[in-house]
Amino acid sequence: MNKTTKRSILIVSSLMSICGIIYFVTSYTQSLEGSDPGSQIQTMFFATSGIVYIPLGMWMLRNRLHSRGPYVISILISIFLVMLYVASRTINLPIVGIQGDVGIVDIITKIIQVGIIAISVRLVQDLKKEQILPAIK
């Protein structure tokens, strides 16, 4: 495994951890804002997102490039969360309605998630190359 790949794994797992921490903090602040069903669902959603991101980041560090699993899962989850964010700002979703606010934390998490997607896609491609090249030799 080359230096760039190792660095990419470290970067993407760090981004996963940062994003997970942001979701935990957001979950806590959301829980303080209200106790209505919409706030409770958002609190659970943010906490679940944090719970998913941090172990995935740790799995990436332990896994390196032995499996595509953590990278594919992180791509799918990040795409889903970005799409859900866009949907929550454009259509009337059940329980939460249309969210009109776009904060700095929202923008930062979406930038991080796009980074997670891009780096994970590249790592999956690197893994395919490593699997193909030894078979050719």
- As residue ranges, the low-confidence spans are none
> Could you tell me how far the N terminus lies from the C terminus, measured between alpha carbons in angstroms?
17 Å
By secondary-structure content and strand pairing, the structural class works out as: mainly alpha
Count the strands?
Answer: 0
Overall body shape: elongated
Order of helices and strands: HHHH
The pLDDT mean sits at 87
Approximate strand percentage: under 5%
Keywords:
137 residues, single chain
How would you sum up this structure in a few lines?
This protein is mainly α and 137 residues long. The protein has helices at 3-33, 37-63, 69-90, 104-136.
Describe the structure.
The chain is built from 4 helices and no strands. The radius of gyration is 17 Å and the shape is elongated. Helix content is 82%, strand content 0%. With 137 residues, the protein is mainly alpha-helical. The longest helix has 33 residues, at 104-136.
Itemize the secondary structure elements and their pairings:
Blueprint: H1 3-33, H2 37-63, H3 69-90, H4 104-136
Helix pairs in contact: 1-2, 1-4, 2-3, 3-4
